[in-house]
């Protein structure tokens, strides 16, 4: 793989005057957070078919990579392309260092992206800021054998049906009908998205920096109180309450019969349960229309401050990873979802419907491609990774019986709003 000339990286935003000859080859760096062979394979494949080259460099997990990116941007030593995780979108948008793709890159059918992936990375004018790439979402995992033993042959599609199944399993002696870790992505964000309700005003911050959290009212309170009640009755177990110590491990070990989890849990679950595994869209409460779930994973950002030739190479790589064939390869090697209609159809057309390498994508794609509304498009809330920690910290106190769930959610709102106001003061001039 061709290495980037480090002198290129030393050029800051003020050094953009020179433009390479169109016939010259160029090399750029791409920083990412996916530590697996699939990314190296995609990069090597691109380099083999292009006169240009891309140096794909793993920078650690998402939080570590973001810290490195911030430091690199401050020293004008940042790469041309960067993969950022979903909840880092707001911070990068407000930094002013990115080049909005749909604004500057018009010869692409951006509408081909599925609603759950497209909406999350759009600006307030519905234009994509970055290119959706490695995509996952939440789905319901079910041990069909365990449910069949209590007379349930249909996977629950509503929480009311899920509750019925949990009760039957518990009454039959099953020690763990359902499990979750209580993380905000699963029990807050995804629940709100597929019910079309907000977790903060201003449509989750899309309409302004002056948003406030609404997690202490409405459906979210109902759902968290339900989880608390089900936990008290032994219908739901959290991580530390399982023998396995981790909800996904408890499911794959046949300790727990059901869980809501990311598609990333599919390979381990399929290996453990085989034909007993069923995955489907996560449940909704009766009386609610179903909307798309949020996309998890990351997207590809073009960072500002580089030569026109380098940006051309970046766009060439973006074109390459958007190809249906490339998306299929990434899906096959990682389990991530295709993010365009064309790629999904290509996989259907070129793959045996029983191929286990692609069995996980159908429920996830269907979930992300449900109708969208203003609350299911995504999250634009500053310092949101910190809020996730606040939310889990407070709700864990409630699950432990130290405070009521309402108090926990009131505390999460108060502390979350403080983070939002700090973010607003920091970035008000960019809004």
Automatic annotation (TrEMBL):
Keyword Lipid metabolism (UniProt): no
Gene3D superfamilies with a match to the protein in the record: Periplasmic binding protein-like II
GO cellular component: ATP-binding cassette (ABC) transporter complex, substrate-binding subunit-containing
Signal sequence bounds: 1-22
Keyword field contains tRNA processing: no
Pfam family, one: SBP_bac_8
InterPro entries according to UniProt: SBP (IPR006059)
Top-level taxon of origin: Bacteria
GO biological process per UniProt: maltodextrin transmembrane transport; maltose transport
Keywords of this entry: Signal, Transport
GO molecular-function terms, A-Z: maltose binding
Family: Belongs to the bacterial solute-binding protein 1 family.
Record-given protein name: Glycerol-3-phosphate ABC transporter substrate-binding protein
């Amino acid at each position: 793989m061709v290495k980037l000339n480090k002198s290129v990286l030393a050029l800051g935003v003020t050094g953009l005057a020179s433009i390479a000859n169109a016939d010259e080859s160029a090399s750029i760096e791409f920083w990412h957070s996916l530590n697996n062979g699939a990314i190296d394979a995609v990069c090597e494949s691109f380099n083999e078919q292009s006169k240009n080259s891309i140096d794909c460099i793993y920078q650690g997990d998402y939080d570590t990579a973001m810290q490195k990116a911030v430091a690199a941007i401050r020293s004008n030593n940042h790469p041309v392309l960067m993969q950022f995780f979903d909840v880092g979108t707001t911070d990068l948008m407000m930094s002013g260092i990115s080049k909005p793709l749909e604004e500057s890159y018009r010869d692409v059918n951006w509408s081909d992206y599925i609603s759950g992936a497209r909406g999350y990375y759009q600006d307030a004018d519905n234009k994509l800021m970055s290119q959706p790439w490695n995509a996952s979402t939440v789905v319901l995992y079910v041990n069909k054998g365990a449910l069949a033993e209590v007379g349930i042959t249909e996977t629950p599609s509503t929480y009311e049906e899920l509750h019925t199944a949990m009760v039957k399993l518990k009454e039959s002696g099953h020690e763990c009908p359902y499990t979750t870790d209580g993380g905000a992505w699963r029990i807050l964000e995804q629940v709100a998205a597929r019910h079309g309700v907000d977790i903060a005003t201003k449509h989750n911050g899309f309409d302004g920096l002056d948003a406030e959290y609404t997690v202490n009212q409405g459906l979210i309170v109902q759902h968290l109180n339900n989880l608390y009640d089900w936990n008290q009755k032994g219908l739901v177990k959290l991580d530390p309450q399982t023998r396995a110590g981790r909800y996904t491990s408890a499911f794959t070990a046949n300790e727990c019969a059901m869980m809501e989890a990311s598609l990333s849990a599919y390979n381990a679950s399929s290996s453990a349960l085989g034909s007993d595994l069923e995955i489907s869209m996560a449940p909704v409460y009766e009386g609610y229309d179903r909307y798309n779930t949020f996309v998890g994973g990351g997207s590809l950002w073009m960072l500002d401050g580089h030569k026109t030739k380098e940006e051309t190479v970046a766009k060439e790589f973006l074109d390459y990873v958007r190809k249906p064939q490339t998306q299929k390869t990434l899906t096959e090697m990682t389990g991530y979802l295709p993010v365009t209609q064309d790629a999904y159809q290509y996989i259907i057309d070129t793959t045996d419907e029983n191929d286990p390498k692609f069995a996980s994508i159908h429920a996830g794609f269907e979930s992300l491609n449900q109708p969208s509304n203003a609350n299911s498009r995504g999250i634009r809330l500053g310092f949101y990774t910190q809020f996730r920690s606040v939310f889990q910290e407070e709700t864990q106190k409630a699950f432990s019986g130290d405070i009521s769930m309402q108090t926990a959610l009131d505390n999460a709102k108060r502390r979350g709003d403080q983070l939002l106001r700090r973010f607003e003061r920091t970035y008000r001039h960019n809004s």
